[in-house]
Design a protein that fits this description.
The protein is mainly alpha-helical. The protein is built from 11 helices and no strands.
Length: 260
């Protein structure tokens, strides 16, 4: 009975992960369009502010407790730290290094997350799952085929960003179960806003007023990003990490499809 329930959780978690990767890819496409008109730091600030506001409205609608003792826990503090780390350094990597090498480094996230699940949560991972994860990463590397000159010391930015995202996912799994998804989402987007503020200090730029079209793209990207974020948190808080995390590789499929 326990095994069957675990399999059901793995199935639901895998579906949630695939949906999250699809919506994240769509969000990336919108943000790429927006980045042609607005500075990256400003995008993160506005994106984080709108997402935080929308989640606050959802929290109020559902009458959830905005503040609780669970928020003042080590996993939540770590989650915010890793979220900011991932957002800042991965955004810098996209801006300063070739996209191919940055994408390859991001695809190491499933491996790091599974290793973290073994070390932190004592999860048992079978040989077949390790082989599947490694084959997935090798496949991504072969498809993207980054040139040797693409990798440099600046690629460490993408490594730090990848480690930030992996740490965020592990901290989300360790977060108290009493914390509802809208609460996690609000803190996630609040971290994005802080990341935008940090990036604006490193990369000062003048504020650019978005026109009606760009404003519409921003709102749409936030709504899609909220759905993606909730799905990702749902996936990471159920089932086995080693069974669900490999479905992150589907993001590359959706990204290529949108590119075509």
């Amino acid at each position: 009975m326990i095994v069957k329930n675990l399999r059901n959780q793995n199935l639901i978690g895998s579906i949630a992960m695939v949906f999250a990767m699809a919506t994240f890819a769509l969000e990336d496409a919108l943000l790429k369009t927006i980045a042609e008109a607005l500075p990256v730091s400003q995008i993160l600030l506005i994106f984080g502010f709108l997402g935080t506001t929308f989640f606050l409205c959802l929290i109020k609608y559902k009458r959830l407790a905005l503040f609780s003792k669970e928020l003042n826990s080590i996993p939540m503090h770590l989650r915010i730290f890793f979220e900011i780390l991932g957002r800042v350094f991965y955004t810098l990597a996209i801006a300063l290094t070739p996209l191919s090498s940055t994408t390859v480094i991001l695809q190491a996230t499933p491996i790091v997350v599974v290793v973290g699940a073994v070390l932190v949560f004592n999860e048992q991972v079978g040989m077949l799952r390790w082989i599947a994860i490694l084959i997935g990463f090798i496949g991504v590397f072969i498809i993207i085929d980054p040139g040797a000159g693409d990798f440099s010391l600046l690629s460490l930015l993408a490594v730090l960003g990848m480690l930030g995202f992996a740490g965020r996912d592990l901290a989300s799994r360790a977060a108290p179960k009493d914390l509802k998804l809208p609460i996690l989402g609000m803190h996630g987007f609040l971290s994005v806003m802080i990341a935008g503020l940090a990036l604006s200090i490193w990369e000062p730029s003048h504020f650019v007023w978005p026109n009606i079209v760009i404003s519409g793209y921003l709102i749409l990207a936030v709504l899609i990003g909220m759905s993606a974020y909730v799905s990702l948190m749902m996936a990471m808080r159920m089932g086995e990490v080693s069974a669900i995390t490999p479905f992150r590789y589907t993001r590359l499929i959706f990204g290529i499809t949108l590119g075509v």
